[in-house]
């Protein structure tokens, strides 16, 4: 039973009588036995008082049952045991002494506190003689009752603990001989001269000797000659150091492998001096335990290997590599030397796992580990950090070119395809190199900087090596800071939409508006989407941002309509991730319905790369958007090596000529790609928009090539939503700065 915590109920001076009322704690009368619970039975014919007790005596872990007569109490006791009974002296069917007699007859150990209004001392004496633990007279203070209950429960706890300890002692004595006789260890005692006085039966299985043949013989007769001096010294210690044990590993003679005398078994021996109980504490012998540690030694070797090596390739793991790197750094600092750390990552490793399975991936890892090991010098360390990542420690590097030579060897070693069970695979790796002390003076810095250099190789095309550049670290820190700031940009209201008009030269009017996302960073100012959209896609924030763009654009359309501004169709850009995850069509339609905007007022721009994924699911989503009346435009058309087959599968409505084709326009025949795109648009009956028109020459050339709808700085820069009504009311202002009579002329 747990010790009771201090009370937090009524103050000690408060009186409790049957008339007191209060909040009654929940009583779980049906709860089962619980090692952490204390169950108390309240026996009193006054219901009000029964309700008062749980309130006054409530403690964590206490459970209360209640009844109003001796008969009911006996009925409960026959089904349940209690730690304590609070028993009224006078009850309708008998006095409390009857219940004490019942408890005594049934050998029950419940503690009992008699609560009585009797003034006569005989009542108290009779109750205590009958077995009650305490006697409390009414009326009483809460503190008095609490102390009585706490004392009775504490006494019961001590009694049960004492009973348990006594039982355990008996069990221990009963089991002692069995444990010694059946022990898997060799247990023995020696007298003061080092001779056996007792040996357990384990000696036969461990060493092959009969224990009767060893009694009264010196322990040293079992010790191999190489260990005799050591054990003699230890056996002589107890006489000068009584009470101190010793531990030693030594070899004992063994006859268990054929009966000869040549064998030995390595054991771990623990010796404990046996001393007298007198004041002089003399050593009279030795208690010893010898354990065969052959299996343990083998297990330790396996555990040690597993703790410091990769199980697949048997190369050193991260822990061992760090240990060796730190040691190499310390040695290089003493000699004022240099070293290099290489971080190697297998290119396209996920493709092998996804295509051929993880068993083939493991085979590839082992093959690459073998080839990498063959390229390194004798003192180098190759380790596998996990997955498809390896690190190399190159100590004693005299100049960066030494590390470069090894990096080239690593790349050349993988030039030959790796033969897998499913076929051949040409593996390549990306290698980052960090030099000590130039790129860092700690193991963590060198590994991190080599990793950063490797990551830059990945971004630059893979299958190469690169030395760490401090600018890489700066860019990585900037990238992490950008990620952290971006995570709360929507919640902090830092995003904004600017709008840029799409004008028709034929009608000299605005035919559309493109909603362009801006991030108003509190420290960096306005950040264009090209800087942070890729980050949002990589960290999983793009869906939240896309939802914000959709909601904001639709809400703005609804406001313009309510203000009587005849806004044309608004284009929004969605990421490929939006189409690859979730129901993008349902989200768009729900948003339009929520704001009361017609589907024809919205256009969704997708990238050409999304079309090149060529999945049936994406094509179906594009088709569903078109069927819902929502226009779909292909942004940056012509940059993704488009094929006409994509346009047949994806029912888009608009092509947008990328600004990279518009930038270098000098005449109507100087860009065959734009000519081809205009032809494709006419052939598929698609709308055509040219982006990035910044000067008159570009506009004239585009118009000559058959493109009438344009978007760019020549007409207007992206601006907040507040500028749009002015454009829509006076669209001719957009053509005044064009500087061409042809562009400013009224349509035919």
TrEMBL record:
Pfam family, one: GGDEF
Renumbered residue ranges of the record's region Disordered: 1-24
Keyword Phosphoprotein attached: yes
Biological process per Gene Ontology, one example term: phosphorelay signal transduction system
GO molecular function, one term: catalytic activity
Segments forming domain Response regulatory: 39-153
Protein name, UniProt field: Response regulator receiver modulated diguanylate cyclase/phosphodiesterase with PAS/PAC sensor(S)
Species assigned in the record: Thauera aminoaromatica
